[in-house]
Specification:
The protein has three helices and no strands. It is an all-alpha fold.
């Protein structure tokens, strides 16, 4: 009651298996737009981290100057602290991305 397998079916099956093996072996190239989007996303993340540090420093400095009546002193001081914190966070993010990229390249080299 089973259908006999014809030589034509065997040839089609072999052709399909060859195409599947070829597709599994081929590396999918990342589109150029996706690479650029990733870099743009990283750039915006770093800008936002720097601006957030400056904004928080400005807010704390302005609040303390208003509270104590020493208008430019704490404002300048905490804007400097905010800038330093923003740059430190940016550098940490850049190192994280660099480490991830190196790990990915090492994994790709290991596969080859």
């Amino acid at each position: 009651m089973s259908d006999p397998i014809t030589p034509d079916d065997k040839a089609r099956l072999a052709e399909l298996e060859a195409r599947i093996a070829k597709a599994k072996g081929a590396k999918v190239e990342t589109p150029h737009m996706k690479k650029d989007y990733s870099q743009a996303q990283l750039a915006w993340r770093m800008v936002i981290e720097l601006v957030a540090g400056l904004g928080i420093g400005f807010g704390i400095g302005y609040g303390l100057d208003t509270l104590f009546g020493t208008m430019p002193f704490f404002l300048v001081l905490f804007i400097g602290f905010g800038f330093a914190a923003g740059v430190k966070t940016m550098l940490r993010s850049a190192k994280e991305v660099q480490d991830r990229r190196l790990a990915q390249e090492a994994a790709e080299a290991k596969e080859d």
